[in-house]
Amino acid sequence: MTATPQTPQNTASSETGARAILSVKGLTVGFSSRLVLENLDLDVQRGEILGIVGASGTGKSVLLRSVLGLVQRQSGQFIMFGHNTEKLSRQERLAIERRLGVLFQHGALFSSLSVLQNIQVPMREYYTLPQRLMDELAISKLELVGLSPDAAHKFPSELSGGMIKRAALARALALDPQLLFLDEPTSGLDPISAEEFDDLISTLRDTLGLTVFMVTHDLDSLSQACDRIAVLAERRVLAIGNMNDLQKNPHPWIKSYFTGKRAIRQWDKN
Amino acid sequence: MAPQGSDLAASGQPPVLEADGTSASGVLLVSGSWTIETLKDADSQVDQTLKETPSVKQLDLSGLTSLDTSGAWVIIRLLRGLGLELSSATPINPDHVSLFEAVAETNLTAPTTQKNLNFFIALFQKTGEDVVEIYKDIKILAYLAGEIVSCLLKGLIHPRSLRITSIVHHMEHTGLKAVPIVAMMSFLVGAIVAQQGAFQLRKFGAEPFVIDLVGILVLREVGILLTAILVAGRSGSAFTAEIGSMKMREEIDAMRVMGLNIIEVLIAPRVIALIIALPLLGLVANLAGLVGGGVLLWAYSDISLSTYITWLRDAVAINTFLVGVIKAPFMALIIALISCSEGLQVGGSAESLGRRTTAAVVKSIFLMVLVDGLFAIFFAAIGF
Lengths: 270, 384
Ligand SMILES: Nc1ncnc2c1ncn2[C@@H]1O[C@H](COP(=O)(O)OP(=O)(O)O)[C@@H](O)[C@H]1O
Ligand SMILES: [Mg+2]
Hints:
The complex is a heterodimer.
Chain A: H1 8-16, E1 20-31, E2 34-45, E3 49-53, H2 60-67, E4 75-80, E5 83-84, H3 90-97, E6 100-103, H4 115-126, H5 131-144, H6 161-172, E7 179-183, H7 191-208, E8 211-215, H8 219-224, E9 228-233, E10 236-241, H9 243-247, H10 252-259, H11 261-269
Parallel strand pairs in A: 3-8, 3-9, 6-7, 7-8
Antiparallel strand pairs in A: 1-2, 1-4, 4-5, 9-10
Helix pairs in contact in A: 4-5, 4-6, 5-6
Chain B: E1 16-19, E2 27-34, H1 39-52, E3 58-67, H2 69-82, E4 89-90, H3 94-104, H4 119-157, H5 164-174, H6 179-202, H7 210-248, H8 251-257, H9 262-300, H10 305-315, H11 318-344, H12 350-382
Parallel strand pairs in B: 2-3, 3-4
Antiparallel strand pairs in B: 1-2
């Protein structure tokens, strides 16, 4: 890269958080006059697992999708890997996209391709690798996420919900991304699988130095895997911190979320 | 600039795999960056080393700068190829230990590859599958036809089960909204037939007979057949896509478990709507075709509109018109049944939706032309 975009926003970001791998600044998103997110600020630190919680329909998926550029925003900026995403050339954008892995809420596997081919799509797109190596890598990813190699030749319509999630995670990990976006990764999984999933995410973070941006409702995930939790409500990030911080928060929704019956049961367990 | 700033294009040092000093020492040095960015290079070096099969006892990873799961797999593959355990790779960076351990547990069983069939066997297999497919098609068409008849009979007793709203909705979409394009197309086809006919018949001095040609051709064959082909492409494909995507998203299953009758709710309204709409569209097409022929002859030959109409009256009779229109409901039935049955057979993938939609249009057009031919033979035989 020859010229690094040196913008006021960039310098500002390195002051507030030099470790921030992604910062969202003043994000406003709305659909037909109704605002879903308004002036939202959020920093994701390098190497952390950030959990996003919020009532259904508060815009967690919208936040994730607008960071990825899939939803039009009214205003706001994203600084990703130290670059303002608005001011990127095509090549820089590609280089950044190559470092992102995304697990969509419903998997979004390509229905006409087998699981193996699905995992190989990003590899094919960005690199020229021998087919044998791609097969081995794809099987390796598949087993890393806890699927058996038998699933490799199945098509998405032949998989269960949990298997779809895992296969989609394997695809998201295909290029060993640095920043991983997960939209409700453990919903629809049995508790044991969900726990394995959390362990997997933590392991990947520890070994690969992944940063994880995870939308989740799973209190287990929140307490086991997440370093920090951001609560989304009233169109912005209402509170951010670890479990203990949030439990002390007086806001009624946060209070009932983190000290409700389910949450208490969670504490009894630990 | 910030340290992360300039690393967008960075790919680290190239991966290196080399023997330590003399190859007799049995130690291989692994150094550089072993990540997906440089994986092709790394993989070919591993292949090279495995081909030479030196006696290696140990792997020295001290020069390894960065590693990801892909790079870890290639190193594991090297170890396996050399018949070594993970423990003979030292020193492993503490950050990399669990990564190596996790990757070492993958790819333990050789992948099952589907073996390629011999060309002739594959051909026979495909033929067999196609035959079974045709049998299944016939079965499902017969089933649908029977269900629709029973649905109609039930409708006589309980008119509510006929879903009038739905029928009207589909009539609007398949019929009313198709009127402009059908009229336009028939007008042009009528004009083209008239122009060609006039041009050829002029040589024999039989130009007025072009009116017979236009009248009979448009009313008996072209008007209905072209309309039906247009509707197959327009509404048949829509039926398949609608029902197919409902099938894909389990909406059809949801209806079934709610006790809704798929035939009654989805199929019968479409079939009935089309059976009513297609003859009406055929009527529009006939009229537009005749007008097209008349306008062209008035402009292109010396046949005035009033001559055209008088001559046409002698040339065609009511049976000419009926022969055409009688075919319309049958064609509607073919289009609706085939496209609904293809829709119901859509599988789980986007590709199968596309394939079924194509099949619906192709099959219904082919069958319509076939049926049209049978009707032509039949009417000729009874002298109608
Ligand atoms: N494409 C869209 N068009 C209109 N409204 C949308 C769209 N996507 C999301 N919304 C609305 O935005 C709000 C937030 O949705 P979402 O982010 O999916 O919620 P959740 O937090 O449960 O993931 C919801 O009220 C939803 O109706
Ligand atoms: Mg959501």
